[in-house]
């Protein structure tokens, strides 16, 4: 945690339920523990069905950014965004690589950020999917054409080899897991991604 507090801008927390995605990561006990030592804004990525069950507790833990999957929200996407805003947090909508980017367009101007998965949600260490660059560029163009403000976050297989291309395509927030935690110098790895 000390390294994340020094090197990261946000602390990204992957929450998996074993239902929307096959793996289970961690629950509230870990988020409670992280919240006590985090010196950077926490960004919770809910890879769960019924993400709304998490919102209040995340707010109570001081989480700043919450994203949930469009695939898990169906027709509740707008009400989820409103609920997150009502708790004083920033709302993000996430999609897996097989969901067309245009399905996010109705939420431009409403969501604070969009999370484009550049691997399939649920497993660490997967290879980056290169078509993600086109998906980011497509979303960025739509956001700009509407004069809206929304950050684009990219999650999955991000590292020094693609950080510059991702930023060029329009990514604002890069989520790194293996690239940082498997590096001998995590703080330097985070700085290298920032400067790519
Ligand atoms: Zn994530």
At the third CATH level, what is the topology name?
TIM Barrel
Radius of gyration over C-alpha positions, nearest whole angstrom: 16 Å
Q: Structural class of the helix and strand makeup?
A: alpha/beta
User: How does the overall form come out from the CA principal axes?
Assistant: globular
CATH architecture: Alpha-Beta Barrel
Order of helix and strand elements from N to C terminus: HEHEHEHHEEHEHEHH
Question: Cofactors and ligands present?
Answer: zinc ion
What's the β-strand tally?
A: 7
**Helix segment count?**
9
- Tally of individual domains: 1
CATH homologous superfamily classification: Aldolase class I
Strand content: 15-25%
CATH class: Alpha Beta
CA-CA gap between termini: 23 Å
| Spatial order of the strands forming the largest sheet | 1-2-3-4-5-6-7
The helix content, as a percent range, equals 25-40%
How is the biggest beta sheet arranged? 7 strands, parallel
Describe the structure concisely for a colleague.
With 196 residues, the protein is α/β, with parallel strands linked by helices. It has helices spanning 2-7, 28-37, 55-60, 70-73, 77-86, 132-145, 163-169, 178-181, 186-195, and strands at residues 11-16, 42-47, 65-69, 90-95, 113-117, 151-155, 173-175.
């Amino acid at each position: 945690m000390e390294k994340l507090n020094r090197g990261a801008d946000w602390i990204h927390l992957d929450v998996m339920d074993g239902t929307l995605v096959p793996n289970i990561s961690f629950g509230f006990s870990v988020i409670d523990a992280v919240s006590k030592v985090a010196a950077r804004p926490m960004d919770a990525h809910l890879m769960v069905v019924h993400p709304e069950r998490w919102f209040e507790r995340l707010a109570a833990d001081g989480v700043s950014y919450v994203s949930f999957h469009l695939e898990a929200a169906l027709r509740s996407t707008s009400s989820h965004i409103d609920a997150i805003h009502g708790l004083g947090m920033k709302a993000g909508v996430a999609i897996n690589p097989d969901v067309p980017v245009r399905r996010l367009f109705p939420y431009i101007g409403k969501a604070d950020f969009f999370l484009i998965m550049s691997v399939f949600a649920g497993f660490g260490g997967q290879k980056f999917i290169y078509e993600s660059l086109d998906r980011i560029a497509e979303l960025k163009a739509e956001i700009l054409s509407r004069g809206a403000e929304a950050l684009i976050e990219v999650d999955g297989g991000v590292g020094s080899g693609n950080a510059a291309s991702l930023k060029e395509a329009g990514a604002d927030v890069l989520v790194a897991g293996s690239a940082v935690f498997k590096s001998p110098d995590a703080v330097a790895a985070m700085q290298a991604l920032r400067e790519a």
